[in-house]
Amino acid sequence: MLSLPKNFESFNEARRKSFMALYNAKEQGKKIIGTFCSYTPVEIIYAAGAVSVGLCGKSEQGITEAEAHLPKTLCPLIKASYGMALTEQCPFFYFSDGILAETTCDGKKKMYELMNFLKPVHVMNLPQGRDQALALDSWTEEVKRAAKFLENLLNVKITEEKLHDAIVYRNRVRKAIVDLYEVAKLKPSPVSGYEISTVAESADFHFTDDDLVSKIERATKEFKQRIRSDGAGRPRVLITGCPNAGVRDKIIKRLEELGADYVCADNCAGPRTQKFMIDENSEPYRAIAERYLKINCSVMTPNTTRFDDIKALIQEYQVDGVIEIVLHGCHTFAVEAYTTMNIVQNELALPYMRLDTDFSQSDSGQIETRLGAFIEMMTAA
Ligand code: BJ8
Q: What's the CATH code, domain 162-380?
């Protein structure tokens, strides 16, 4: 019989519920692999007969405890991810059989060394630039090495056939998510971006046997049929920069409550990343490596394709202004923010605002004032 965390009784109802849902899945023999990044090739996890679960910390919970091991100046996403694992508050980490991770930013890759004391962590060596000589070759080898890790950990065999099935399945999931995001291309968007992203993010936490693709497709259909009476004239915003899950309520929800529409994200969660499919007719390991190496993250150098994508998304989603979120301690996105600002303000002549923040609520008043002023600026433009 599986054990529950020592502090289980102190959890709120929602947390207890997710624990118990996963507990039941584990009791039925489901294997779970935790992930922290869009570079994780989830196809190999599915081909190993396991399910992947996104483990990034999304709130202040666990940060104080994490700071006993990690520097206070580290990005809140890293501290929250580690803290939730350390304090056994995250059901998904608690029930994960292992972790598949990558060498992305310095803080994350060093944190994994400590996390390895809590659970088996395999760190894939991500090339630092996709144009480097042998980048694709070495990343393909890393995908194979990660597959071996899973085979040993879970005592399974990853065959080419299983890999192919996993590629086809994950391509279908991605296509469904892109279609879902594209609802916001309608002007006015029939549904709030906050709601769209809530459905898209739920795909990261799918442990049951019902069909995830049909679930997303149903939501897309329902959203398209909605009639929104207050939609006209609301400025349309693209959010870029660091992952925004930990600041969704403070920034995105508030932005929409104040009168703008969040129509698109140029980040890991948005259509920019989901649109890359895997070639279903090539050698699977190389095809997987090729797809993941296309991701435009600021940990890559150079990362010029990110800016090409921002420009394309601004056009496709008829964007009126760009907000860049930079989490405290995230140097790679903070440096790239200078280029984003120049492109948006000077080349495209659109309003741009950068918000430096963390997962606390201490700056929510200040952020609200700045969001209000930004909406006025977009409306006047
Ligand atoms: S592919 S964005 S998920 S690395 S915000 S922890 S970069 S200091 S999350 Fe990311 Fe993968 Fe890139 Fe996406 Fe470091 Fe920056 Fe923190 Fe970050």
A: 3.40.50.11900
- The pick from 111, 268, 355 for probing ligand 1's pocket by mutation, whose C-beta has the most ligand atoms within 8 angstroms, reads 268
Give the span between the Cα atoms of 143 and 291, in whole angstroms: 12
**Does residue 112 line the site of ligand 1, with CB under 6 A?**
no
CA angle 7, 8, 9 (to 5 degrees): 95
CA-nearest residue for atom 10, ligand 1, is 37
Q: To which residue do tokens 């398209």 refer? A: 224
Instruction: Give helix 284-293 / helix 135-154 axis angle, nearest 10°.
Output: 120
Mean pLDDT of 194-222: 85
pLDDT reported for residue 90: 86
Residues of the chain with CATH 3.40.50.11900: 162-380
pLDDT in tens, 59-69: 999 999 999 99
CB proximity list for 19: less than 8 A, separation 6 or greater: 4, 5, 8, 11, 91, 94
Q: How many CA atoms lie within 13 A of 230 on its CB side?
A: 8
* pLDDT band per the 50, 70, 90 thresholds, residue 243: very high
Q: In this structure, are strands 121-124 and 32-35 parallel, antiparallel, or unpaired?
A: unpaired
Q: What is the DSSP string of 206-218?
A: --SSS-HHHHHHH
Question: Quick check: CB of 75 below 6 Å from ligand 1?
Answer: yes
Q: Is 263's pLDDT higher than 80?
A: yes
47-98 pLDDT, tens digit per residue, is 999 989 888 888 999 999 999 999 999 999 999 999 999 998 888 899 999 9
Pairing of strands 261-266, 321-327: unpaired
Indicate if ligand 1 lies below 6 Å from the C-beta of 158.
Answer: no
pLDDT in tens, 275-291: 999 999 999 999 999 99
SS3 (DSSP) at 190:
coil
**Which three-class secondary structure state does DSSP give residue 22?**
helix
Q: How many residues does the chain have?
A: 381
Q: What does DSSP assign to residue 102? A: E
Pinpoint the residues of the chain covered by CATH 3.40.50.11890: 8-158
Question: Two tokens at 282?
Answer: 């090539």
Fold type of domain 8-158: Rossmann fold (3.40.50)
